[in-house]
């Protein structure tokens, strides 16, 4: 079965010959290749993020967890994730919340960031891509500068030297349904559909500058939980297909 915590563990185990870094480490340190940036978008179920964070900690891995406010902002859980050595970042969706009003959006950004910083040293941010809204959250930075808020990088915009981007969005590593979670790399196209494909590729060390995004809520060893996540993905993917057909018309 794919998308189990055990499978995620196998992915982590396939990274033994890579430097594994958080987003802020990537931005502030000299990172030798081959490397992998690991990012987690905690869109829902923060408890599962904690499980993943504990597993990575056991494997000696530090990654970056982006939390939505207030949707997945569970203070106790985030404090534990942070204490395990992981970076905590802000998964912002302010342009959606402000319904496309840039001035309103930046005020919400400032306020929410302030709340997060009461407990955490937030250095990086990451746009939450809601497929059901028409706004791309990153567009906010065409008008404002996140550096003015003491932020050193945005998870999509700042990772410029990456060659390969892999995301579990759409419950596949090669989904055409990644409407907002994508990178324009224009590099070699690799066929990676399942986690086993990804493991094989990583073990072969054919790729040197990698970036992996994993949504913790998708990964579970618990059959009921796993089935719920599967059903949610099927519903979302169907919705995205309808949207894509609509956009093409
Ligand atoms: Zn998200």
Describe the structure.
The chain is α/β, with parallel strands linked by helices and 249 residues long. It is globular and about 45 Å long. It is built from 8 helices and 8 strands. It starts with a helix and ends with a helix. The mean pLDDT is 92. The protein is 37% helix and 15% strand. Residues 41, 43, 91, 128 line the site of zinc ion.
Which terms would index this structure?
single chain; 249 residues; alpha/beta; TIM Barrel; eight-stranded parallel beta sheet; 8 helices; 37% helix; binds zinc ion
Short description:
With 249 residues, the protein is of the alpha/beta class. It contains eight helices and eight strands, in the order αβαβαβαβααβββαβα. Zinc ion is lined by residues 41, 43, 91, 128.
Give the total of beta strands. Answer: 8
**Total number of helices:** 8
State the fourth-level CATH superfamily: Glycoside hydrolase/deacetylase
Oligomeric grouping of the chains: single chain
In terms of per-residue confidence, which ranges show pLDDT below 50 for 5 or more consecutive residues? none
Nearest-angstrom radius of gyration?
17 Å
Order of helices and strands: HEHEHEHEHHEEEHEH
Bound molecules: zinc ion
- What general form does the structure show? globular
Helix content: 25-40%
How many domains? The number is 1
Determine the strand fraction and express it as a percent band: 5-15%
Secondary-structure-derived class: alpha/beta
């Amino acid at each position: 079965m794919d998308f189990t915590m055990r499978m995620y563990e196998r992915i982590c185990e396939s990274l033994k010959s890579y430097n594994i870094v958080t987003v802020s480490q990537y931005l502030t340190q000299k990172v030798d290749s081959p490397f992998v940036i690991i990012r987690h978008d905690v869109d829902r179920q923060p408890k599962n993020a904690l499980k993943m964070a504990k597993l990575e900690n056991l494997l000696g891995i530090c990654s970056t967890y982006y939390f939505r406010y207030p949707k997945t902002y569970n203070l106790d859980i985030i404090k534990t994730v942070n204490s395990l050595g992981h970076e905590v970042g802000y998964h912002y969706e302010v342009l959606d919340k402000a319904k496309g009003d840039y001035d309103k959006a930046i005020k919400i950004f400032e306020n929410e960031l302030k709340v997060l910083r009461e407990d955490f040293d937030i250095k990086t941010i990451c746009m939450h891509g809601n497929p059901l809204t028409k706004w791309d959250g990153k567009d906010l930075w065409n008008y404002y500068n996140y550096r003015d808020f003491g932020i050193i990088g945005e998870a999509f915009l700042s990772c410029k030297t990456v060659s390969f981007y892999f995301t579990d969005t759409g419950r596949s590593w090669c989904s055409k349904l990644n409407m907002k979670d994508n990178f324009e790399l224009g590099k070699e196209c690799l066929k990676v559909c399942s986690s086993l494909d990804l493991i094989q590729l990583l073990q072969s060390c054919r790729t040197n500058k990698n970036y992996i995004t994993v949504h913790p809520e998708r990964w579970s060893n618990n059959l009921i939980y796993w089935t719920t996540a599967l059903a949610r993905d099927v519903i979302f993917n169907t919705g995205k297909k309808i949207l894509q057909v609509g956009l093409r018309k």
